[in-house]
């Protein structure tokens, strides 16, 4: 079972209390963007085996969105942080690098 701590209200919630929101740190494209950029935004997503950054909403709690860094293979959670962060906090990246030497977050890992 996946357990994530909401950074907004501090509650440790299992996945039944949360709503997934897909990949985190995407550059949103909309009206005025060219077709290729809009297509990329709508359809092209990473689906890694390993470290992944995701959006979650504490649906049955405070209702706020947040980001989580976790391993898609082991379900190990490296940390959660507010959705307003443009990049994962340094302490989470350090935690990931300790488990995965050579890991490099490229602005959308």
Automatic annotation (TrEMBL):
UniProt cross-references to Gene3D superfamilies, sorted A to Z: Folate-binding superfamily
Species of provenance: Rhodovulum steppense
Extent of the signal sequence: none
Organismal lineage: Bacteria, Pseudomonadati, Pseudomonadota, Alphaproteobacteria, Rhodobacterales
One GO BP: tetrahydrofolate metabolic process
Listed GO MF terms: sarcosine oxidase activity
Record InterPro entries: SoxD, SoxD_sf
Top-level taxon of origin: Bacteria
Annotated protein name in UniProt: Sarcosine oxidase subunit delta
């Amino acid at each position: 079972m996946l357990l994530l701590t909401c950074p907004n209200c501090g509650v440790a919630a299992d996945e039944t209390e949360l709503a997934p929101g897909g990949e985190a740190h995407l550059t949103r494209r909309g009206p005025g963007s060219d077709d290729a950029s809009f297509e990329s935004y709508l359809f092209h997503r990473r689906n890694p085996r390993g470290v992944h950054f995701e959006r979650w909403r504490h649906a049955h709690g405070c209702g706020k969105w947040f980001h989580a860094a976790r391993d898609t293979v082991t379900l190990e959670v490296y940390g959660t942080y507010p959705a307003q962060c443009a990049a994962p906090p340094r302490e989470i990246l350090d935690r990931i690098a300790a488990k995965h030497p050579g890991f490099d977050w490229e602005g959308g890992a």
